Amino acid sequence: MRKFFLLLATLLATPWGQAASWILPPADIDIFGQLQVIPASRDETLLDIARRYSIGQDEMLWANPLIDRWLPPDGADVVIPSRYIIPQAERNGLVINLPEMRLYYFPKPEKGKKPTVITYPISIGRMDWRTPLGKTTVVRKQKDPPWIPPQSIKMEAIAAGNPPLPDYVPPGPNNPLGRHALYLGTAGYLIHGTDKPYGIGMRVTHGCLRMYPEDIESLFDRVPVGTPVQLINQPIKLGWLADSLFIELHPPLEEDEEQYADYMQKVREEIDRFLEKSNNDKKANSARKNIVLDEQMLELAVFQKSGYPVMISK
After folding, report:
1. pLDDT, tens digit (0-9, with 9 covering 90-100), for 224-252
2. Which residues carry out catalysis?
3. Helix/strand/coil (H/E/C) assignment for every residue in the chain
């Protein structure tokens, strides 16, 4: 059995407001990171704490449903949901899981160094401005990008009774793209910063992917042009840690809610698919093939949808 420190990985950097870089676990392990619990302070909202730990607004609220986002009780235990199941996708380039509102970056390993994974919270497109799924690439990068509002967004502003948008917004503090932008091969879609950082981790954009200013600055310097990008839809994630099965649950996207009306049924279908795939793996051991679910923990996980990994095997 692999040692626990390899499964949790090693924290390489924890500067304020920036995501951590972790040693990427082996291919047969799906979990990295570490949950933290910190005391709340009357001087900070939950959103302040979220930004300090590079957590999105919604995922902070999912992990702390009983704590007031604006006035957390002084000294209350605040869960920092900084442990993750790696999405079921190729561990290469950028992987963006829309329901989770989180981006994973798997940089190309440097010679002589272990591969790493870095993760950041993002905002995604509203239901009427959906962020497209599929594969694309980073086609160019620009620092201090100008913003040229599309006609569709101009019309929306007018319809809402807001002042007309200009044809051109120069770089600066009022530019909604922030100071860094990664342009994707899907025309019109970017990964960029923002002038409204407290909206990160919510479904609020016109289809683009927003990040905290400090996070996009970090990612901008790391990601080369040509990096592959996978945009996926996985509200239900499953993964192994040693021979234990974990589940990480998020609310589905609004347009998919009808499919998830019986959320427990969808969870069981995903578990069956995941275990069938694992059992077909020639390297799978007997402990994984004979896994027994802890029904009580599974029901609790579905009820809470906490957004962080929960063990559901006995």
Report:
1. 999 999 999 999 999 999 999 999 999 99
2. 192, 208
3. CCCHHHHHCCECCCCCCCCCEEECCCCCCCEEECCEEEECCCCCCHHHHHHHCCCCHHHHHHHCCCCCCCCCCCCCEEEECCEEECCCCCCCEEEEECCCCEEEEECCCCCCCCCEEEEEECEEECHHHCCCCEEEEEEEEEECCCECCCHHHHHHHHHCCCCCCCCCECCCCCCCCCCEEEEECCCCCEEECCCCHHHCCCEEECCCEECCHHHHHHHHHHCCCCCEEEEECCCEEEEEECCEEEEEECCCCHHHCCCCCCHHHHHHHHHHHHHHHHHCCCCCCHHHHCCCECHHHHHHHHHHCCCCCEECEC
